[in-house]
């Protein structure tokens, strides 16, 4: 898998030489760096997208994931919330915030994100299972 990611990384970097402001490719670049454990490079990629296209929720979410992996939970939560400001239906941001609030025992806040996930992904068994488990703890 790492070999495929390395090839993808090379392809994305080559494409970005031709169009450095391609936000979607830069988001993919950030995700690949993240998967390879290159957190500083991933953070730079997401921050550049946010600088160039501040309204892209996926860039904020990607930055949040990197911050979380770097141990910056407050920064991660801020980025996830920013993602939801730009896209109130961003599934991954809702899932990450639900997980964060559950871990902190903030049931009411977690519930709001679970509720959004059930609305957005009603056919996904895992979403329903997690929402039901959260409600059972109440």
Tell me what you see in this structure.
The protein is mainly α and 138 residues long. The protein contains eight helices and no strands. The mean pLDDT is 92.
Topology overview:
Elements: H1 2-18, H2 23-35, H3 39-52, H4 57-69, H5 73-86, H6 91-103, H7 107-120, H8 125-137
Helix pairs in contact: 1-2, 2-3, 2-4, 3-4, 4-5, 5-6, 6-7, 7-8
Name a few traits of the molecule:
single chain; 138 residues; mainly alpha; elongated
Secondary structure tally, helices: 8
Shape: elongated
User: For the residues shown, what is the average pLDDT?
Assistant: 92
Indicate the proportion of strand residues: under 5%
Output the radius of gyration. Answer: 16 Å
N/C terminus separation: 41 Å
Helix content: over 70%
Structure, briefly:
With 138 residues, the protein is an all-alpha fold. Helix content is 80%, strand content 0%.
